[in-house]
């Protein structure tokens, strides 16, 4: 709250800069949390479909609902689904994947090219729940990073995984992937894979904020390249933005929130955006909203409108 006589800080649009304030009502809180709750429902729902099929024999019309794992699976015994990065590693070994695997990889590629490549990271990947917990604890314990690491390192790790696949004749990242380890542990039971997951949790908590997902994971880097084509984007309404900084404070990929570039494009255009919606939930002015890319008009052709205001809780 501003003290008497002290002028309010104003944004570039001349409007007062308002911090995000969590609503007092349950309805208001649920509105703020609705994207987070949706993400958790999708993540847990995917895991439940795998677990239900393996352990309880779930079927639909006599066909297993979801078999396999996050690298290669089959939906209803008919639709192949495959991790395109894992498939690429197999191809780099010199082996030609089965036709079903190639088809499954194409299906996933098209799906995330439309939805947003790194939507996989925030809406499906089970490791995201681990790293989100680390980030939540870091904010409350006010833990600082122990060192700086370029986020571009993940692209080096991606290239290294492909090179090692060529040299060793095996899909290199799949052998050590903590994502696959956690998925297997959750479906088939506790094993040594939990040590890798614990390592990521502690690394993110005490060493580097968003260390695994934001700096090292080659699968995230792969989907970031695909994300450049994404049709589902976080739209940016430049006239309403006061540059309060609330979005960058919470975003796991704050470098994507270049507001000058966003104003020129009318959206967050970087493929490294994971479409998690955290920025949308805390924006006091409703400046950020999910939109379809083809509906976003260049700002110089858009009519200037009054900035939107967040609905009262």
What is the topology?
Layout: H1 26-56, E1 59-60, E2 63-64, E3 66-68, E4 72-75, E5 79-82, H2 84-92, H3 99-115, H4 119-123, H5 127-141, H6 153-168, H7 172-176, H8 178-188, H9 193-207, H10 211-216, H11 218-227, E6 232-236, H12 246-250, H13 259-265, E7 267-268, H14 278-282, E8 288-292
Antiparallel strand pairs: 1-2, 3-4, 4-5, 6-7, 6-8
Helix pairs in contact: 1-8, 2-6, 5-9, 6-11, 8-9
Report a brief summary of the structure.
By secondary structure, the protein is mainly α.
The parts where pLDDT drops under 50 for at least 5 residues are 301-313
**Gross geometry:** globular
Q: How would you classify the helix and strand content by structural class?
A: mainly alpha
N-end to C-end Cα span: 19 Å
User: How many structural domains does the protein architecture include?
Assistant: 2
The percent of residues in helical segments reads 40-55%
Order of helices and strands: HEEEEEHHHHHHHHHHEHHEHE
Order of strands across the main sheet: 3-4-5
Query: Mind summarizing the main beta sheet?
Result: 3 strands, antiparallel
What's the mean pLDDT score? Answer: 90
DSSP strand content: 5-15%
How many strands appear in the DSSP assignment? 8
Radius of gyration: 21 Å
The number of helical elements comes to: 14
In words, what does this structure look like?
With 313 residues, the chain is mostly helical. It folds into two domains: 36-225, no CATH class; 231-301, 2-Layer Sandwich (Alpha-Beta Plaits), CATH 3.30.70. It has 14 helices and eight strands. It has a three-stranded antiparallel beta sheet with strand order 3-4-5. A three-stranded antiparallel beta sheet has the order 7-6-8. β3 (66-68) and β4 form a beta hairpin. α2 (84-92) packs across α6, α6 crosses α11 (218-227) and α8 packs across α9 (193-207). The radius of gyration is 21 Å and the shape is globular. It starts with 25 loop residues before the first helix and ends in a 21-residue tail after the last strand.
């Amino acid at each position: 709250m501003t003290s008497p006589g002290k002028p309010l800080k104003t944004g570039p649009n001349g409007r007062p800069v308002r911090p995000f304030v969590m609503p007092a009502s349950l309805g208001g809180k649920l509105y703020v949390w609705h994207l987070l709750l949706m993400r958790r429902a999708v993540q847990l729902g995917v895991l439940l479909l795998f677990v239900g099929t393996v352990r309880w024999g779930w079927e639909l019309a006599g066909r297993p609902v979801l078999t396999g794992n996050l690298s290669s699976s089959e939906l209803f015994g008919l639709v192949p689904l495959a991790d395109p990065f894992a498939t690429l590693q197999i191809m780099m070994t010199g082996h030609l994947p089965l036709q079903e695997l190639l088809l499954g990889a194409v299906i996933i590629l098209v799906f995330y090219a439309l939805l947003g490549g790194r939507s996989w990271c925030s809406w499906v990947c089970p490791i995201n729940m681990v790293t989100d917990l680390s980030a939540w604890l870091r904010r409350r314990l006010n833990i600082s990073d122990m060192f700086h690491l370029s986020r571009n390192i993940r692209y080096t790790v991606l290239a290294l995984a492909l090179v090692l696949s060529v040299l060793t004749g095996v899909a290199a990242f799949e052998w050590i992937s903590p994502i696959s380890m956690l998925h297997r542990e959750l479906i088939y039971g506790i094993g040594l894979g939990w040590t890798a997951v614990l390592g990521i949790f502690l690394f993110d908590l005490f060493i580097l904020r968003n260390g695994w997902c934001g700096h090292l994971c080659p699968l995230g880097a792969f989907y970031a390249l695909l994300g450049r084509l994404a049709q589902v984007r976080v739209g940016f309404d430049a006239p309403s933005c006061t540059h309060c900084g609330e979005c960058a404070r919470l975003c796991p990929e704050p470098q994507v929130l270049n507001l000058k570039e966003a104003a020129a494009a009318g959206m967050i255009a970087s493929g490294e955006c994971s479409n998690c919606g955290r920025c949308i939930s805390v924006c006091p002015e409703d400046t950020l909203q999910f939109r379809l890319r083809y509906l976003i008009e260049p700002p110089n052709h858009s009519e200037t409108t009054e900035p939107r205001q967040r609905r009262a809780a």
